[in-house]
Amino acid sequence: MIELQQVSKTFHKKNGGVTALDNVSFTVGKGNIFGVIGASGAGKSTLIRCVNLLERPGSGKVIVDGKNLPDLSSSELARSRREMGMIFQHFNLLSSRTVYENIALPLELDKTPVSQIKTRVDELLALVGLEEKRNDFPSNLSGGQKQRVAIARALAARPKILLCDEATSALDPATTSSILSLLKNINRKFGITILLITHEMDVIKAICDEVAVISDGKLIEKGRVGDIFSNPSSPVTREFITSSHDVAVPFELEQVLTESSNGTDYPLVKLRFTGKLNAGTVFSETSRLFEVDNEIVAANMDYAQGIKFGVILILVKGTQENVQQAIEYYKSNNIQTEVLGYV
Ligand SMILES: Nc1ncnc2c1ncn2[C@@H]1O[C@H](COP(=O)(O)OP(=O)(O)OP(=O)(O)O)[C@@H](O)[C@H]1O
Ligand SMILES: [Mg+2]
């Protein structure tokens, strides 16, 4: 549905150029939700703007529905753009228009007959759950409601693709989650292909089928979300996963934690499960093999595409030798293992 081939973009400034995109290639299949994650300045906005040619790539192909957009005439491009809706972090609603009028705008611009506009806007208001707010102005809406209006407006002309530029970054966690559910619902119901960019791994985990990671304008990793979460290959990706999933050492333990062992205390160990391993099984194996007792202190486990991952803090209790063997066993099973101290 969307294919980027070796897309590069350099912004030229007086004192040199900034390479915002460097040879980026990926394909988004029809009906998929594809997420691009990257830190601030990584090139995410530039990337998504290249997909509808709000930004022209310096080189490379942007193929949407079989057509390379940079090759199109302006009228052909306008037609292709109609197949793509877009939503933004700050909603970009017109403050002088009501909710109804904001949603109707793209249809008015398309010269759709008034009666058809009414039917379509009513449908969209119901879809995003804002029938009651039809005559309100944006200034009277919450952030989540504004984003719902923006989504309805983006869908008005029945696009095949929805582009989302940090669509939930200005929203609190509960509202973020309701907007993400709405996007997923729209994707399932209408088969719309969604390309979204974000700096939050939680967004990727919640709704994406596939993810690409960009850093300094380069695509450094891509794949199915479950695979990336269970087996991240680059440090940048690992850092994104870690930042969305960590556990703190409980205050009481922190107070008594020592840096080195006195021989009779137990290590506090942080285990990061990103594989297909079952933590329970691994714990019973070490108990059986090395006669240790794994006391779970804190845990933060989650699912992405049916794959469990997360972090568990344990006190490994047993003789010093057995405890050491258990720790080696964790490491040899590809579990990221870190001894935080001794209690
Ligand atoms: N119009 C522009 N002119 C000059 N430089 C630009 C322009 N747009 C972006 N850049 C530069 O390109 C790089 C990538 O910017 P971009 O906005 O794509 O990053 P981003 O990943 O969206 O960041 P953020 O998460 O902060 O929104 C940055 O170094 C930025 O300063
Ligand atoms: Mg941006």
UniProtKB/TrEMBL annotation:
Pfam families: ABC_tran, NIL
GO MF entries: ABC-type D-methionine transporter activity; ATP binding; ATP hydrolysis activity
Gene3D superfamilies: 3.30.70.260, P-loop containing nucleotide triphosphate hydrolases (3.40.50.300)
Highest taxon of the lineage: Bacteria
GO CC, one annotated term: Gram-negative-bacterium-type cell wall
Domain annotation ABC transporter: ranges: 2-241
UniProt keyword annotations, A-Z: Amino-acid transport, ATP-binding, Cell inner membrane, Cell membrane, Membrane, Nucleotide-binding, Translocase, Transport
InterPro entries membership: AAA+_ATPase, ABC_MetN_proteobac, ABC_transporter-like_ATP-bd, ABC_transporter-like_CS, ACT-like_dom_sf, MetN_ABC, MetN_ABC_transporter-like, NIL_domain
SMART domains xrefs: AAA (SM00382), NIL (SM00930)
PANTHER family: AMINO ACID IMPORT ATP-BINDING PROTEIN, METHIONINE IMPORT ATP-BINDING PROTEIN METN
Protein name: D-methionine ABC transporter, ATP-binding protein
Gene designation: metN
